[in-house]
């Protein structure tokens, strides 16, 4: 039960950061000279990579592009739309 709660909390954190990444990339598409926004975007990108690495090391692949132990684990993980937050 603890691992399930921990997994869900980490997944929520990843989704929040990835949402912010999408927003900053859309903003930067129309404001490419905003250095502050670019620094924020790069910070979020780094944090997203770190959190995804932690998630995948503890709970298996988050996407079909993630690393997997043998046998292929991606298919065994709960799908994001199956989660009840």
Automatic annotation (TrEMBL):
It comes from Gottschalkia acidurici (strain ATCC 7906 / DSM 604 / BCRC 14475 / CIP 104303 / KCTC 5404 / NCIMB 10678 / 9a) (Clostridium acidurici). This is Spore coat composition protein, manganese catalase family. Pfam families: CotJB (PF12652). Residues 9-82 form the Protein CotJB domain. InterPro entries: CotJB_dom, Spore_coat_assembly_CotJB.
């Amino acid at each position: 039960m603890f691992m399930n709660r921990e997994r869900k909390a980490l997944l929520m954190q990843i989704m929040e950061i990835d949402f912010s990444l999408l927003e900053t990339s859309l903003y930067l598409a129309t404001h490419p000279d905003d250095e502050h926004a670019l620094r924020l975007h790069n910070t979020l990108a780094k944090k997203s990579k770190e959190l995804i690495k932690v998630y995948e090391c503890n709970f298996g692949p988050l996407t079909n592009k993630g690393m997997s132990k043998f046998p292929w684990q991606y298919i065994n993980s709960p799908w994001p739309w199956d989660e009840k937050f």
